[in-house]
Amino acid sequence: MLIRQPGVTRGTPVRIRAFNKLGTHPLAGSVDTNLHGVNASDITNPRTIIHLHGSNTEPDSDGYPEDTYLPGQSNVYNYNNNQEAGTLWYHDHSLGMTALNLQAGLAGMYLIRDEDDPIGGNGPLGIPAGAPYEVPLILQDHSFNSNGSMSFPVTWKTEFYGDVAIVNGKAWPNLNVDRTLYRFRIVNASNSRFFRLKLSSNQQLIQIGSDGGFLNAPVYLSKLLLGPGERADVLIDFSKSLPGEKIVLQNDAAAPYPKGLATVIAQGFFKMPEIMQFTVNKGAAVPKPIPTQLRVNNPLITKIATKPVKQRNLVLIDILNSNFQVLAMMLNAVYWHEAANHPELRERPKVDTVEQWNFINLQPFAHTMHLHLVPFQILNRQSINDTAYSAAYRATGPRKVLMHDAPGGDTVPYNYPPLDPTPYLKGLPKPPAANEAGWKDTVVVNPFEVVRLIVPFGAKAAANLPFGNSFTGRFVWHCHMLNHEDNDMMLPFDVLP
């Protein structure tokens, strides 16, 4: 786990050559060749490719899952950093191996700075920037064998929940803190676990930023929910804490989120109530003011006014065998190789246009959905009658598309594009929570819910966007629960000229 995060300034390009010097995979016994893209050679010669999560990056540097390179090889990444200050992170994105490679430690943080948040601090917000009062927290959950080696299922499972909290590569760590204001850049880098964080002292978490940078104003929270792939920029004020006081960062999110397993007894199996501890140092308290406005040099975030040129309905679904065992987690009931080979099965927005993407979750647990290339705004959330919609969706019949490479024949089950959910909606749309009202690239989609996003596919798509480039080419969108992503909840999309 890389915790000495790179820090770069907005508009200053960076060119990085990454070398694959990996040896035999530390989770070699869990390499599952039944997953797409995985080969037996991944045991001793693991592939890798880096994705800079949250970056507005050209396709050749985005970390396309099939663009992997082997031990002894290298790859060049060009990051233009032409976007607002924010909490980005980078991680492996190898087709079929992302879960194992992240579990083995291939993840790190990447911070972009700008005038509101300059390198070295002394910015207009008066918040920490850099050590010792700005601290990255990369959260994971692991399991270990009796000899201390990492443990992971030997065959694919729908989810993985470890029993040891890992922060920056350490189990249940302690951080000694002074009696002053701290800033924590938090990334949920877990496979499947949602974290709903709180402090044992019951003091508030002050969220100042989300995936894509600063919010308009601080949001004071008793609990902070982060799904896999999401980030939060958080202030904690220890100035009122007592010397020697021990404050535990706690987690009360059920696993699977939000309701856990079916029985009360089983719900205790995957709990992880404690993440890390803060121990307050001796010394005088040094209070710091909390800024009331966070966007001094950048425009306030307002709803994108440009009318979407297209709406896309995107279904989150699983495929079962005759014994009701899950064979794969899917998007629009399309397999990766089908969409990769057939343009008509890919989403194909045009550059510098705005679209509305509607994620429809037909499953009894939440997912986190991530778009590469561009940030988005959450428009609203609305419940759906999943039973009625699912029955109607499945009754629409197979796609009539000739696909010689599809397993079992020349058609694939269910309809494409997915059915309009409007007749099946329940209740009224709900606006995003205050801490979701900023720029996002990863969104929680709750069970039996439609989440509507406004997505600008280029810097000229609308006014006051937080990034400056308009790229065309092929990117991906996927669930960021890593076992889902590996089988088969990820699809390519094309941004067309």
From TrEMBL:
Pfam families reported in the protein's UniProt record: Cu-oxidase, Cu-oxidase_2, Cu-oxidase_3
UniProt superkingdom: Bacteria
Domain Plastocyanin-like: 45-116, 173-240, 332-495
InterPro entries tied to this protein: Cu-oxidase-like_N, Cu-oxidase_2nd, Cu-oxidase_C, Cu-oxidase_fam, Cupredoxin
CDD domains noted in UniProt: CuRO_2_CotA_like
MF term (GO), any: copper ion binding
Homology family: Belongs to the multicopper oxidase family.
Protein name: Multicopper oxidase domain-containing protein
Species: Desmonostoc muscorum LEGE 12446
